């Protein structure tokens, strides 16, 4: 339903997004996760047809967002970062206006507006001037505006920002309720939001996509995978080979510690296997000294931080596990 | 069909927003007050046109017959034209600047509407509000002209007011373009006011320069064409000049919004 390929956009010499790619299947909710300033809003704006891309293509429902802008605009509902509201209109008047400019026919308008009001729980505020609404209600009017014409594709830029926890739950439930009939892409910088609402997640950082997967798979793959941080003395090439031969070891990264005879090893394991004792044995048997060894298991936040603070564009298991969980030392050997 | 519906939707929203805006009422109030004072002054004051004619008749000097209603219309609409030039920047300033500041331009730009439809709808909305400003004035005029003897032929005041509306439409259209250049109402109003002044200065300078410049500038001067219509001189070239200014304003607005989207950071 949404296909984005090699999408780039720069403001002057500064690239906002580079080679962004992802697809969203019909009826799916894609979470677009990234820290502030990563290029989420830029991508959303390009998808909505508001901004032209510098290069690359984005297609919504088979139409190019730039060359077939009108066809795309008819098929999307878009909630920008700041809800586009007229403060001097009532909620009802505003939604009728939006329905009109989105091309809802006069016969359906009332029904559609009523439905949007009901879906966003705005029944009590229909006659209130938008300028007098609280932040939470403004956000909900913004959401109602995006769904009032029942568009097949809904683009939501930070839909839960500024809401209190109860409102956040309501909005998330609303979004989940819309899935199936609608294809939804929503951006957020809140990690748990993605795992709660989305079918799939694309992580963006410094304008580049660093990972795309189902949130569960992504988190399981990255979090569930154990690793060991080991500090040894008398490192040799042979040791690396021996370690790699141990069942369950996936990768060994070697890093010299400056001004020291010690070497730091980052050992990544497959799945939930725990070859800790085998690793320790291998090190001792090969005549190296084992100075420190601890198990590493990155938390959800660590994964996110790691993916989004590294300059490296591709997420690798090593990168994720690089972050160690120092609170959980399994084994410290200091001869 | 959808195009018309879109233009109408924008028109309606825009017109509604003027009727909900306190500033618009302040502007309307001032406009009515000033136009009322001018009306009474021109007609009834010791320096007014009725006194003038009366003194002329009393002095016994033979004078050609004076069409009081016509001369009044010339003077009155001349002043209303100037007053309009002051009011226009206040009406047009928010047309796009407000949308840009509020972020609602993003809604319009991502809805299935062309920039042209939005600009045209907005222009029609603000023009309609301006026309409603004229209604109390028209009532005063109706009262005055009803008393005129011989009766005033309706074509002359009709043409004059058409001129006034066309002048306002042209200035509003250019003001709308200037409003699309900024997020600030104040800057938009100042820019528009400067433009109105420049147009007036151009007209004045043109009259001082003599031929051939005078003729050339008169051809494109909004003020000159407005005067012609008020005097009852109907020339289709006047309509074309007004239409060109209106079109220019809408065209520049549509382009400016398009460019804005390309530059947006």
**What percentage of the residues of chain A does DSSP assign to strands (E)?**
25-35%
The major beta sheet of chain A can be summarized as: 6 strands, mixed
Beta fraction of chain B: under 5%
Order of helices and strands of chain A: EEEHEEHEHHHEHEHEEHEHEEHEHH
Q: Gyration radius of chain A, to the nearest Å?
A: 25 Å
Report the helical percentage of chain A: 25-40%
The number of helices of chain B is: 12
The shape of chain A, in one word, is: elongated
Mean pLDDT of chain A: 81
Number of helices of chain A: 12
Folded structure, characterized:
The complex is a heterodimer of chains A (335) and B (265). Helices cover 35% and strands 27% of the residues of chain A. Chain A is of the alpha/beta class. Chain A has a six-stranded mixed sheet, with helices on both faces. Chain A is elongated. Chain B is an all-alpha fold. Chain B is built from twelve helices and no strands. Chain B is elongated. The two termini of chain B are 35 Å apart. The mean pLDDT of chain B is 87.
Write the layout of secondary structure elements.
The complex is a heterodimer of chains A (335) and B (265).
Chain A: E1 2-11, E2 14-24, E3 29-33, H1 40-47, E4 55-60, E5 63-64, H2 69-75, E6 76-79, H3 91-101, H4 106-119, H5 135-147, E7 153-157, H6 165-178, E8 183-188, H7 191-197, E9 200-205, E10 208-213, H8 215-223, E11 227-233, H9 237-245, E12 249-256, E13 262-269, H10 276-285, E14 289-296, H11 300-309, H12 317-321
Helix pairs in contact in A: 3-4, 4-5
Chain B: H1 2-19, H2 22-44, H3 49-58, H4 68-92, H5 94-102, H6 105-109, H7 115-146, H8 155-179, H9 185-209, H10 213-220, H11 222-230, H12 236-263
Gist of the model:
By secondary structure, chain A is α/β, with parallel strands linked by helices. Chain A is 35% helix and 27% strand. The relative contact order of chain A is 0.13.
Features of this protein?
heterodimer; A: 335 residues; alpha/beta; six-stranded mixed β-sheet; 12 helices; disordered C terminus; B: mainly alpha; 0% strand
């Amino acid at each position: 339903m949404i296909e984005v390929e090699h999408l780039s956009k720069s403001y002057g010499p500064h690239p906002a997004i580079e080679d962004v790619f992802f697809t969203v299947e019909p009826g799916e909710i894609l979470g677009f996760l990234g820290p502030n300033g990563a290029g989420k809003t830029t991508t959303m704006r390009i998808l909505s047809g508001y901004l032209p891309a510098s290069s690359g293509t984005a297609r919504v429902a088979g139409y190019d967002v730039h060359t077939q802008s009108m066809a795309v605009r008819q098929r999307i509902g878009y909630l920008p970062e700041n809800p586009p509201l007229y403060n001097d209109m009532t909620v009802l008047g505003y939604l009728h206006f939006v329905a009109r400019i989105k091309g809802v026919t006069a016969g359906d308008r009332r029904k559609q507006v009523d439905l949007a009001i009901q879906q966003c729980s705005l029944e009590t505020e229909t006659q209130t001037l938008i300028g007098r609404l609280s932040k939470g209600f403004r956000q909900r009017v913004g959401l109602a505006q995006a769904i009032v014409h029942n568009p097949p594709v809904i683009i939501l830029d930070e839909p839960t920002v500024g809401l209190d926890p109860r409102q956040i739950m309501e909005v998330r439930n609303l979004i989940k309720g819309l899935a199936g009939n609608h294809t939804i892409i929503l951006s957020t910088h809140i990690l748990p939001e993605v795992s709660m609402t989305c079918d799939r997640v694309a992580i963006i950082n410094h304008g580049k996509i660093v990972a795309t997967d189902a949130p569960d798979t992504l988190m399981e793959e990255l979090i569930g995978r154990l690793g060991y941080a080991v500090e040894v003395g008398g490192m040799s090439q042979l040791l690396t080979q021996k370690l790699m031969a141990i069942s369950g070891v996936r990768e060994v990264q070697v890093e010299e510690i400056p001004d020291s005879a010690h070497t730091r090893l980052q050992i990544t394991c497959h799945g939930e296997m725990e070859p800790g004792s085998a690793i320790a044995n291998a090190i001792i048997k090969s005549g190296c000294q084992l100075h420190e060894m601890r198990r590493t298991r990155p938390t959800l936040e660590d994964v996110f931080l790691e993916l989004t603070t590294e300059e490296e564009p591709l997420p690798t298991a090593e990168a994720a596990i690089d972050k160690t969980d120092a609170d959980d030392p399994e084994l410290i050997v200091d001869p | 069909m959808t195009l018309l519906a879109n233009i109408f939707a924008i028109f309606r929203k825009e017109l509604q927003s003027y009727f909900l805006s306190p500033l618009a009422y302040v502007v309307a109030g001032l406009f009515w007050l000033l136009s009322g004072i001018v009306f009474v002054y021109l007609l009834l004051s010791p320096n007014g046109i009725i006194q003038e004619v009366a003194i002329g008749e009393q002095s016994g000097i033979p004078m050609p017959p004076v069409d009081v209603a016509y001369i009044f219309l010339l003077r009155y609409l001349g002043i209303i034209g100037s007053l309009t030039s002051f009011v226009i920047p206040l009406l047009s300033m928010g047309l796009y600047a407000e949308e840009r500041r509020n972020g609602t331009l993003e809604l319009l730009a991502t809805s299935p509407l062309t920039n042209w439809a939005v600009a045209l709808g907005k222009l029609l909305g603000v023009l309609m509000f301006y026309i409603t400003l004229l209604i109390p004035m028209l009532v005063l005029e109706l009262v005055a002209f009803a008393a005129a003897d011989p009766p005033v032929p309706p074509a002359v005041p009709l043409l004059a007011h058409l001129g006034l509306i066309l002048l306002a439409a042209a200035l509003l259209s250019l003001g709308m373009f200037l409003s699309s250049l900024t997020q600030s109402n104040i800057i938009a109003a100042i820019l528009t006011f400067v433009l109105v002044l420049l147009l007036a200065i151009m007209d004045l300078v043109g009259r001082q320069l003599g031929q051939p410049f005078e003729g050339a500038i008169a051809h494109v001067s909004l003020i000159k064409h407005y005067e012609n219509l008020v005097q009852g001189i109907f020339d289709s070239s006047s309509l074309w000049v007004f239409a060109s200014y209106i079109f220019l304003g809408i065209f520049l607005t549509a382009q400016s919004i398009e460019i804005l989207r390309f530059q947006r950071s």
